[in-house]
Amino acid sequence: MTERFILANGEIVRASGEVIELTAGEAVILGGLWKHRGYYISRSRQATWLWGARDSWPDAWDSCISVHHSHLRHKTTKCSFTIEHKTDYGDQFRGELTVDSEDPHPTINHIGD
Q1: How far is CA 71 from CA 7, 79, 105, 106, in A?
Q2: Number of domains in the chain
Q3: Model's pTM, two decimal places?
Q4: In which band, very low, low, confident or very high, does the pLDDT at 2 lie, cut at 50, 70 and 90?
Q5: Contact (CB, 8 A) for 1 and 15
């Protein structure tokens, strides 16, 4: 059994029953990368998911996204998935994760668009 990501409250539930709580930013990134698994997603695209930036975005946001990724990697070291970073390409979800898409908060459904 793989981990289950509950989009509505930003939690990962491991097969053992352990709950890993994510911040809103971490949940947005994980949900977006999972939705586009198999593809490298640029940091500018991830900034769009987080802050709605469309064309230009401050370089400082790249650092913010890096911090979200660092925290996500730290929290999910024992999970059955990883997020791979490739310079000049972006980030890619790799592995297995079941996503609970029955979201009682429809405003979150834009994640990863």
Answers
A1: 18, 14, 24, 26
A2: 1
A3: 0.81
A4: confident
A5: yes
